[in-house]
Q: What sequence folds into this?
C-alpha cells in the first residue's frame, strides 16, 4: 500500500517509519524541508507540496494527516480538497475535537477517518493504540497501515461513525489526567508521610504484580530514578489541559458527573495561578472577619502587578 | 445568678460583659493579672486563683470555661475538681472535640455542659449562637446566663446529651469552611473572568435580597471594601483546620461523603504547601514521560531545602 | 414613570406589583388572557399584544421582559423590534446566558439592559437583588423602577457593560448550588451521626448569631419545620442545573477551578441517574476482578431497560 | 528454608503453593481441618494447632500469618508468643493498619515484618507484589520466601522500619480506589455519551499501546467481555472501604489533600446510601423554598422506615 503522510514531526515520523518498516510505500510532506529530507533518508518519497503529494499518490489516495489539531488540519484539507474524491481516504491522526472531525467528515470529498492516537514517542518501538471513527470500508482499506502503525491488529479498532475515534481519544485523555493525579496523590502522601521512603523502589515493587501496576506507574518509576525521590527541580506547574477540558465539557452536556477528572483538571489550572488562588485569599481574609484570626499577608517584595 | 468565668480572652470577656449587662454577678479568673483587672473594672469580682474563684462561688456553683480547647480545659477541670459536686454546673464554651467533652462529662463530679459557641467577636454586640449538650436540668439552670450570652432565647438550645453541643459546633465549622470556599470560588471567577467588576458592589447587591445573602457574604463585602477588589496583599494561605478535620474524620466514621467540606479543607492544606504540591510535580514530569512535553522546572534560586 | 412589562408569571407579577406600589404606571402583556386580567385588576393597563403594548408606551419606551430564558426572549425582541429606537430601553430580567445578552444588546435597536434577578417569590415583599449590565444612561433612566423592584437603592447596581448583569447572576447561581450542598452535607452528617438531633432546632440556633447564618439556612429551618427532621417523603432528586452548568463552562474557559460548585452540580446529575452510576457499577465489578469480592447484583425485578 | 503458614484461605494457599513450588518446606495451619488437608495434599506438613506448628518449626522459626486483619492477627500472635524468641521472624501478610503493625512489632518477642501484599488471586500464577517493613536482617532472612511468593526478586522490597510495609500498602489501596473510579468515569461518559460503543473493544484497544493501559484496564476489558457493554445486572453498590478510609485519615494527619482518593471513597459511601443522600434531599426541598420549584417526592410505596 502507498500512504501519503502530511506532517513529519515526532509523531508523523513514527507513522512514516512504522509504515515503511511494514513494507509499504510512503510519500511524505512537511513544510520544513529538513524534515522532508530526513523522511527521504528513511526511505520515504519526499513531496515538496501537498499538490505534488497528491499527484504522487494517484488514484485511490490514502493520506494520513499528523499535524497539530486545529487550523492546520483545516488548512491541509482545504489544500488537498481539489485532489480528493470519494474513493480516497484521509486519516486525521491528531488530537482534533470530535465535533471538528464530524464537520470535516461531512465537508471532505474523500472518506474521512478520525483516528485517536495514543502512546506518545514510546510508540516508535511498541506501536500506537489507534481509535478510529468513520466509514467501515475506509477503515478496512487502511487496515494494513493501521496494523503497522499500531501495536498490531489488537492495537486498533473502529469505534463507530465519524467523530467516534476522536471522541474515545478525548475520554482517554480525561482518564489519563485522573490517573496521573491519582498516582500523584499516593506518592505525595508517601513523600510527606511518616516514613523516609525510596519512591523509585516503591514504584518498582508496585509495578511487579500489584493491582495498580500500569505503564504510567512505570513512568513514575522512571521519573523517580531520573529525578530522585524528591523530584529535584521539577516544578509544581502542569501545562496542557485542552482534551481534559473537552472531556468535562462533554460530560456537562451529557449530565455525567466526573469528579475525579474534574479534580485533576483543576489541579492543572490551580498550578498555573501564579498570583495565588483568589478563593483562598478571600477565605484567609474572612477568617479575620468572623474570628479576628491574623490575616496572612504576602511579602510586598513578592507582590506582582495584577 | 452568679457565674464564674474562667478565661478572660476575647471570647471570655464577651461572656463576662454580656452576663453582667443582663444583671447577673460574675466572678472572673484568668492567669493574666491584667485581664483580671480589666474584668474587675467592667464590674466582675476578680479571683486570683481557681481555688478562690470556687470559694467565692459557694454552693451550687455555675462555672463557664472559656479557655483554649485541649489541655487547658483538662487543667482547669483538674484544679476545680476538689471543689465540685453534683449540684454544680460547669460549661465548656470552647471548641473542644466532642469525644473529649463526653469523657469530661463522665469524669467531672459536676454536671457538665459542652457548649458550642459561634459568632466570634461580633457576638459582643449581637450575642452568640450557643449549641449545648448535657443534662437537661443543668441546661435549664443556666438558661438565664445562656439568654444573656446568646442573641437571646432563640440563640441557644439544648442539642442532646453530653458531647452533642460540641458535635453540632464541629459540623457547623465544617459547613463554614465550605461556605467560605463557595463564595471564594464565585468571586474568583468574577475576578478572573470577562468583566472588570467592583466586587464590593457585587457583594453589596447580593446582600440585598439575593438568594445567597448571608453574614459571611457581608464579611466578603467588608473585605472588598477594606482590601479592594483585588484583595491587595492578602496572601493565598489559610491557617487553621482542626474542626474541619474533625468533621471529615467523623464523616469517615459515619460513612457520610462530604465532598464540599473536604474540598474546602483541601484548599487549606494546599495553600500551606510551600514547596508546591508533590502530586502536581509528578504529573508535570509524567507529561514528559509519555509525551516528551517540556518539564517545567523551578528556578534554582527559589528552590529550598526539602 | 411608565413601564411595559412582558410576561406575567410569578416573577413578572412581582415586577408589576412593586412598580405599581411605587407609584409608577404599568402596561402589562402576557399571552395568557387571564394573567393580563389579573394584572389589570392590580392596577396595570393591559395590552393584548406586543404591538399594542408598544403603541401604549409611546416615545422613550421602557420595557421589562420577564419571560423564560431562551427562545421566548428572542421572540419578544423580534416582535418588538419594529417599534424600538435608540432612546428606548429594554430590560431582560430573566436567567439568560450572558452571551445571548451580549448578542441581543448588539442586535436590538433599543438600549439593552441584562438584569440578573435573585430572590424568588420571597421578593414580592422584600424586593429583589438586581445585577444590571448595559449602558450607564439606560441604567440611570430605569433607576426609579429598579428602586421599586429591588429591595431599594442598595438592592441593585450596574455591574458593567452588556452581559455583565447576567454574568454575575450566573456566578451567583453557581455559588447558590454550592451553598445548598454545603448545608446539605452538614445536615446529612448530623442526621446520620451519633446523636438524635432536632434539625429544625439546630438550624434555628445557627440562624441566631452563628457564623453560617443566612437566608438559605432560614429556608433549611423552614424545610425541617414543614417536613420533619428526616425530610419525610422528599426525594433524593435535584432538578435544574443550567446556570450551574454555565458557571462551570465559563470557569473552564477562564481556567478557574471550581471544585465545590462542580461537586454540587455533580450531585444534581448523580441524583438523576435512575439506572445507577455506571462508574460505580464498574468499580463493583472490578473488585471481583482483582480480589474475588462478591459482585453486588441488582434485583432482576428492579432492572429496567437501558 | 522451612516456613510456617498460618491461615490457609485463598491468599494463604497461594503463599503455601508458591513457597512449595520454589522447593521450600511448609508447615501449614488453619482452624479449618479441610483447609489443612488440602494444604497437606499440596505437599505441606499440616499442623493441627499453633503450638504444634511452632513445635514443628524448631529453632529460628519463620512464620507467615495470612489471617484477616484485626483481632485474628492479635489472637495468633498471642498464641504463638510463648514459642517465639528474638531469632524468630513473623511476617504479617494481611491488610493490617500500620499502627497495629508498629505496636505488634514492639510487643512480639520475634522479629516482625509487616508485609503489604497486592495482586489478589491472580498472584497465584504471577506472584504478588510485597511491600515489607521491619528489621533489615529479618527481611534478608526471608528473601528466599519473598522471591517465591512475589513475582520474583523485583516483586518485593523493604520499604523501611516497622509499619512501613503496611503503610505503603494502605496508600496503594487508596490509589487503587481512585484508579478504578477514574476508569469508571471514562467508561460512564462513553456509555452515556454520543456514540453506541463496544466498551470491550475500547478497553482492548487502550490496553494495546495507549498511555492509560494497565492491569486494572485489562480487568475492565474482562468485565465488559463477561457482563456486556452495559454491565448487565451489576449493581451500583461498592462494598469495602477500610483501607481507603485509613488513607484519607492518614492524609488528614499529614495535612495532605487527596481530592481524587476522597472522591472515590465518597462514591463507595454514596453507593450504599439506600435511603438516598440526605444532602440532596435537602437541596431538592430548598429549591422549593427559594424558587417554588416543585418538590420531587419519593413514592410512598418505596418509602422505608428510617
A:
Amino acid at each position: 500500500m502507498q500512504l501519503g503522510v502530511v506532517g513529519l514531526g515526532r509523531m508523523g515520523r513514527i507513522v512514516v517509519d512504522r509504515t515503511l518498516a511494514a513494507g509499504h510505500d510512503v510519500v511524505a510532506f512537511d513544510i520544513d524541508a529538513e524534515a522532508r529530507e530526513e523522511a527521504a533518508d528513511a526511505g520515504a518519497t519526499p513531496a515538496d507540496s501537498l499538490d505534488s503529494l497528491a499527484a504522487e499518490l494517484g488514484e485511490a489516495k490514502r493520506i494520513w494527516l499528523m499535524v497539530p489539531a486545529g487550523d492546520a488540519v483545516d488548512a491541509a484539507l482545504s489544500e488537498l480538497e481539489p485532489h480528493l474524491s470519494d474513493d480516497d481516504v484521509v486519516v486525521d491522526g491528531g488530537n482534533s475535537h470530535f465535533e471538528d472531525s464530524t464537520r470535516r467528515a461531512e465537508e471532505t470529498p474523500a472518506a474521512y477517518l478520525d483516528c485517536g492516537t495514543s502512546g506518545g514517542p514510546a510508540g516508535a518501538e511498541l506501536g500506537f493504540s489507534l481509535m478510529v471513527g468513520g466509514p467501515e470500508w475506509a477503515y478496512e482499506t487502511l487496515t494494513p497501515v493501521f496494523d503497522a502503525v499500531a501495536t498490531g491488529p489488537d492495537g486498533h479498532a473502529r469505534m463507530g461513525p465519524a467523530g467516534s475515534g476522536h471522541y474515545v481519544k478525548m475520554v482517554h485523555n480525561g482518564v489519563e489526567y485522573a490517573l496521573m493525579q491519582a498516582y500523584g496523590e499516593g506518592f505525595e502522601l508517601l513523600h510527606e508521610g511518616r516514613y523516609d521512603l525510596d519512591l523509585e523502589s516503591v514504584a518498582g515493587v508496585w509495578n511487579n504484580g500489584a493491582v495498580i501496576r500500569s505503564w504510567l506507574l512505570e513512568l513514575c518509576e522512571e521519573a523517580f530514578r531520573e529525578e530522585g525521590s524528591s523530584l529535584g527541580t521539577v516544578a509544581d506547574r502542569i501545562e496542557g489541559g485542552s482534551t481534559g477540558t473537552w472531556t468535562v465539557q462533554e460530560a456537562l452536556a451529557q449530565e455525567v458527573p466526573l469528579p475525579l477528572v474534574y479534580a485533576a483538571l483543576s489541579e492543572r489550572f490551580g498550578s498555573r495561578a501564579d498570583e495565588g488562588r483568589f478563593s483562598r485569599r478571600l477565605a484567609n481574609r474572612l477568617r479575620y472577619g468572623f474570628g479576628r484570626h491574623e490575616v496572612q499577608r504576602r511579602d510586598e517584595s513578592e507582590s506582582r502587578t495584577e
Chain B has two domains: 2-161, 169-270.
